[in-house]
Structures are given as structure tokens and as C-alpha cells.
Design a protein that fits this description.
Its main location: cytoplasm. This protein is of the alpha+beta class. It is built from four helices and five strands; from the N terminus they run E-E-H-H-E-E-E-H-H. A hairpin with a 5-residue loop joins strand 4 and strand 5.
């Protein structure tokens, strides 16, 4: 099951972080922020290929004992990070990719809102509901 979903701005500060077990919230913040180095490495390794292929899904960033961390980057360099419980073997790579696309579409809806200032924290009930449904869907 997904235990944490984060949206990170281009400048590497969090726009949105949601984690399911709230007692481990600080651990997930640390995990998300340490994954940003891996995201930057993958983006620089892909270089022009990232733009040419239009492949935004970065795949598995790194596994830990209990969790697997997946990444996705938009054309505007906004990063999505998902931490998944490694005991869940039902999830496949294509399901992660489709979940990131759904998250990206919801983020795009927020950016199209004229009352949202780009760079502010995401405080949308619709976005929060969508993330909660994604976390429950994965369970």
C-alpha cells in the first residue's frame, strides 16, 4: 500500500506531503527528501532523452527494507514521489505509472485554478480526496 505521496516544487521544497501512518510522518519526510538526490541523478542521466521520449515516469528510485520509493517528474520539473510498502507485491510498474499520471492530471487541475498561486502549498480538498482515494485504492 502507498504510505506517502509528495509533490515537490522545482526548487525542492514540498508543496504537498500526505502520509498514512501519521506517527511515522517525520520518517516519510526524510525519505522523500533523500529521494530528491536520486531524482536529480536520473534526470541528469537522461538529459535530452527525457524531453525527447516524453517519459516522465522515473520508476523505482530506491528500495529500503520496508518501503520502495518511486518517482515522476513533470515538464516543469515538479516532482512527485510515492513511497509504497514493499510487502505489497500486487502492484506492478504500470500501475505506479498510471497512478502518477492520475496525480499529474489532478495537479494540472490545481494549476488551472485562477485562485491558486504557483509555488504555494497545495490546500485543495479535491486534491486531498484524490490522494486519499489513491492510497485506499492501493491498499
Amino acid at each position: 500500500m502507498a504510505v506517502c505521496i509528495a509533490v515537490i516544487a522545482k526548487e525542492n521544497y514540498p508543496l504537498y506531503i500526505r502520509s498514512v501512518p501519521t506517527e511515522n510522518e517525520l520518517k516519510f519526510h526524510y525519505t522523500v527528501h533523500t529521494s530528491l538526490d536520486v531524482v536529480d541523478e536520473k534526470i541528469s542521466a537522461m538529459g535530452k532523452a527525457l524531453v525527447d521520449q516524453r517519459e516522465l515516469y522515473l520508476g523505482l528510485l530506491y528500495p529500503t527494507e520496508d518501503y520502495k520509493v518511486y518517482g515522476y517528474v513533470t515538464n516543469s520539473k515538479v516532482k512527485f514521489v510515492m513511497v509504497v510498502d514493499s510487502s505489497n507485491t500486487a502492484l506492478r510498474d504500470n500501475s505506479h505509472s498510471s497512478m502518477f499520471r492520475k496525480l499529474h492530471n489532478s495537479y494540472t487541475d490545481i494549476m488551472c485554478n485562477p485562485f491558486y498561486n504557483p509555488g504555494d502549498r497545495i490546500q485543495s480538498r479535491a486534491f486531498d480526496t484524490m490522494v486519499n482515494s489513491m492510497m485506499m485504492q492501493v491498499c
